[in-house]
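Protocol step 4 of 6: structure prediction from sequence.
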Amino acid sequence: MEIVKINETRFDIEENIITVSLSGFNEFVMLMSSGDVIRYNIDEQKKQFLFSVKSSFSFEDGGFDIESPSTIYTLDSIVVIVNDYKRHGFVHYPEKYNSLHLWRKDYHAAISTYPIALFKDEIGIPHLIYGEAWNHIQIMNLDTRQILTASKSLIEEKAEEKHLEFYKNHKEQNKLPWPRPYDYFWRIKNIA
């Protein structure tokens, strides 16, 4: 057997690369030691900042852990990065939003990889399948952030209109997927 070296690439970056994934022809998406996620084009030796996994919010478990094993998933320009055996991740969709925070419940998170899958439906709309809890996944339309598997959207009338109205005055990074979990106790209290 003969091994032939086809290409050698050196990255013009000062930081350490924590994890990397191929995102296109001669293009990588990388999580850097600073917490920045960048897209790097090998041909042009050019890097583009996408977003940071560092958050101004504080979480009980510390939030996204840069030092823990992580995986990057890509679909066209969409980038998803998650901590493999922890609870946090982010979705970056350049045409729509900068970094949507993903979070899953703690039960068995330390022994199960964060379930993620990206796909486009028959008309080309990108969707994300992600784990919300042990043995519980959701499907989100990434264009609208609507969680298609949520029961609340079937219960509440005009859920999309209410969501859009509520978030009109929020900064983009504070907008969440919708509908939010249904509060059955609040609904029963107000009906009784």
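Step 5 (inspection) to follow. The longest strand covers residues 17-24.
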